[in-house]
UniProtKB/TrEMBL annotation:
This is Type I restriction modification DNA specificity domain-containing protein. GO terms for biological process: DNA restriction-modification system. It comes from marine sediment metagenome. PANTHER family: TYPE I RESTRICTION ENZYME HINDI SPECIFICITY SUBUNIT, TYPE-1 RESTRICTION ENZYME ECOKI SPECIFICITY PROTEIN. The keyword DNA-binding applies. InterPro entries: Restrct_endonuc_typeI_TRD (IPR000055), Restrct_endonuc_typeI_TRD_sf (IPR044946), Type-I_RS_S_subunit (IPR052021). Keywords: DNA-binding, Restriction system. One of its GO terms (molecular function) is DNA binding. Belongs to the type-I restriction system S methylase family. Residues 1-157 form the Type I restriction modification DNA specificity domain.
Length: 197
């Protein structure tokens, strides 16, 4: 393995803000990946035209604001204007390896922002970080990629399931509070409710 800088091995592709953003999902719209959407706090959608798209195996980094330097992985959709997609230029580096390297350095990246009023990720600082460039024939590296790949897939599935369940919870809670739907307190009450239907 040899030690190299990230410069020349990765590049940033800054996101773009779509012309129109929607709150409701439809078949022709893609998820608009803002920090709140990636954190599961919001759901926004837009047309996937003239924008930067991310796949589940792309690394995303927050470039603007207080969260500058925060790393995300496993999201499908339109990259927001405050984020950048991290593209790997060196085939010897796997996405998982670079993701975990950046995640490990996340706080350091956040501490080295530029700008006074609104912080921005310092791309030059990120590109100056030194990473161990693996030997592609190294058995340990291939084992790492295989093991971490299956773990990352499970994390993505769990995150997707958590977001889906949170959405269901958020739609059911107002109905429970208003009395539109009821939860039986005991088996007898549940049986009575079923008999009425």
């Amino acid at each position: 393995w040899k030690i190299v800088k990230l410069k020349g091995n990765i590049k940033f592709v800054k996101g773009k803000k779509p012309k129109i953003i929607f709150k409701e999902k439809s078949d022709e719209l893609s998820k608009y990946l803002t920090i709140n959407v990636l954190s599961g706090k919001d759901y926004l959608y837009a047309h996937p035209k003239s924008v930067i798209l991310a796949e589940k195996d792309n690394i995303l980094m927050v470039m603007d604001g207080a969260s500058s330097g925060k790393i995300y992985f496993g999201a499908n959709g339109i990259v927001a204007s405050t984020l950048a997609k991290v593209e790997i230029l060196n085939n010897d580096l796997s996405t998982e390896y670079v993701y975990h390297f950046l995640k490990y350095n996340e706080n350091e990246i956040n501490n080295h922002t530029t700008g006074s009023a609104i912080p921005h990720t310092d791309k030059n600082f990120v590109l100056s970080l030194k990473i161990a460039l693996p030997d592609t024939n190294d058995i340990m590296f291939s084992k790492f990629n295989k093991a971490i790949g299956s773990i990352e897939n499970k994390i993505i599935q769990n995150n997707d399931e958590n977001k889906r369940l949170a959405k269901i919870r958020d739609s059911l809670l107002p109905k429970l509070m208003s009395g539109e739907i009821r939860v039986p307190i005991n088996d007898k009450e549940g049986d009575e409710q079923l008999c009425k239907k």
